[in-house]
Write a structure and sequence with these properties.
heterodimer, A: 312 residues, alpha+beta, Thrombin, subunit H, 6-stranded antiparallel barrel, 4 helices, 12 strands, B: 173 residues, mainly alpha, 60% helix, elongated
């Protein structure tokens, strides 16, 4: 293309003024920002853009994963044999408990039936591969390779082999976004194994978790294990979440500052299990319980019993 | 198309497909796993800034907005965060483009630095205003790295526009 036959700059027809355009685009951007943050009603827009972006992003991730594969391939026979023997050893260690687990569960179920307590839900789910971490430096999220196609819905908890990793927050056609428990203000209802005390653990955004709103004289010790309490209707009870590492008791404040680290390899790459959504919890009792009303009493009793059963 | 003050070379007109191609490549570079490294520049912001300075009639705020939306979805950040920053970047660099191009490359880079830094700062302010954690000071290293890359980026992105050194005396232009 010679330099001579290109179009001259348009002197008169230049479209809207730049400032008008700027204000227009900035207004749209701010509207998007607010709507996405406060109302979460733009998932369709996000999903349709993701339909184009997602395959490209996966392709862009391939060089890295190829290097990883090559590294593991070259790791050598010796390492693998060592790992294999370690795993066999670990399996043998857990065998006595595991072998009796089925019998114990059956027994538990029977006893619960005898006591007419609701049966424990079983944990089922599907294994998903972590594809990559979301690039957003303000949050802690990972993308996994299962999405709407595999029936994943937002809200499902995700665990790895040692404990809770996070929760599905967005679902795309072929992938899903999991917000890690260490994300800022991501909350998990927990219970301290040693004392049975219930609380909620919050992510701090720096890889740690904090047990908030515990009184300064609360019975918490360094090394305590926190497991899910199951009160939220999202996480099944009993999964390890975090371990207490540091407690600051300051008499100037009414609450102790309790810091924990996650038990699961939250920041690791690998495979995780996305648990199926829980069955809906029984309805909460109405705010003002009429003493005489039959239904209110019935509804009010059920969760109480369940809680008592879990505390033990 | 605009010749710079210091260069005696006259450039060929830009090919629109090359602008498109370079922006897509920049987005791909952003998608690479290396984007997690500290100090990795925001390639899209750099290339967008370059074309907004050079070809503000072709690459404007509309492009900036679309690319911002793309990066928002790809990053998993709040929609509108990159859009806002990129649109602002495109506007300011287009407004200052006539000034920029009178300077030699090193000084151009120096003037581009505040723009790229502002792109990051705007994003941090937006997210912190709605309660996100401060991402740490290393988040602000990347605009400085991008500034250093202004000179090589200019060379690479103008490569298809350079005319051959030995010219036909019958056709001086």
């Amino acid at each position: 293309m010679a330099g001579i036959n290109h179009a001259p700059p348009p002197f008169f027809k230049q479209g809207p003024a730049p400032l008008a355009l700027l204000i227009f685009y900035i207004a749209i951007s701010l509207a998007l920002f607010v709507v996405d943050l406060r109302f979460r009603s733009l998932e369709l827009l996000r999903q349709s853009v993701a339909l184009i972006v997602d395959p490209v992003q996966r392709i862009a991730q391939t060089p890295g994963s190829l290097v990883d594969h090559a590294a593991t391939y070259l790791q050598g026979l010796h390492n693998l044999q060592q790992e294999n023997s370690q795993l066999k050893h670990a399996q043998l260690n857990t065998a006595p408990n595991l072998q009796r687990l089925a019998q114990l569960e059956a027994e538990n179920e029977r006893l619960r039936k005898l006591l007419s307590v609701n049966e424990r839900e079983k944990a089922n789910g599907q294994v998903a591969q972590i594809l990559y971490t979301a690039r957003d430096p303000f949050s802690r999220k990972v993308i996994v390779d299962k999405g709407q196609q595999s029936g994943i819905v937002a809200g499902q908890p995700a665990i790895d082999e040692t404990g809770v990793v996070g929760q599905v927050t967005r679902v795309f056609p072929f992938s899903a976004e999991i917000t890690l428990i260490t994300d800022k203000d991501q909350a998990v209802p927990v219970q301290i194994v040693r004392s049975g005390q219930r609380s909620v653990v919050f992510g701090l955004g720096n890889g740690q978790l904090e047990l908030r709103y515990m009184p300064a004289n609360a019975d918490v010790q360094v090394g305590d294990i926190l497991v899910t309490s199951g009160l939220d209707g999202v996480y099944l009870p009993g999964f390890p979440v975090a371990k207490v590492v540091n407690i600051e008791r300051d008499s100037a404040y009414s609450f102790a500052r309790i810091f924990c680290v996650p038990v699961a390899g939250v920041e690791n790459f690998g495979e995780i299990m996305v648990l199926n959504p829980r069955l809906p919890l029984p309805e909460a009792p109405p705010e003002s319980v009429g003493r005489g009303s039959d239904s209110g009493e019935k509804n009010g009793q059920r969760p109480k019993k369940k809680r008592a059963a879990k505390g033990n | 198309m605009q010749p710079t003050f210091s260069s005696s070379r006259i450039l060929q007109p830009v090919r629109p497909w090359f602008i498109f191609f370079s922006l897509i490549m920049a987005a791909l570079l952003n998608f690479l796993p290396t984007a997690q490294w500290v100090g990795m520049p925001d390639w899209v912001a750099l290339v967008l800034c370059f074309w907004s300075v050079r070809e503000f009639r072709r690459v404007g705020m509309g492009w900036a907005f679309m690319l911002g939306l793309l990066m928002d979805v790809a990053d998993g950040s709040v929609l509108g965060q990159h859009c806002f920053a990129y649109v602002l970047l495109a506007y300011v660099s287009a407004a200052l483009s006539r000034r920029f191009l009178w300077f030699p490359l090193a000084q151009q880079a120096l003037q581009v630095m505040p723009l790229l830094l502002a792109t990051q700062v705007v994003q941090v302010l937006m997210r912190m205003a709605v309660g996100a954690e401060f991402p740490g000071w290393d988040f602000f290293i990347s605009p400085f790295v991008a500034t250093l890359l202004w000179i090589p980026a200019t060379f690479i992105l103008l490569l298809p526009q350079y005319r051959p050194e030995e010219q036909d005396p019958d056709r001086p232009i």
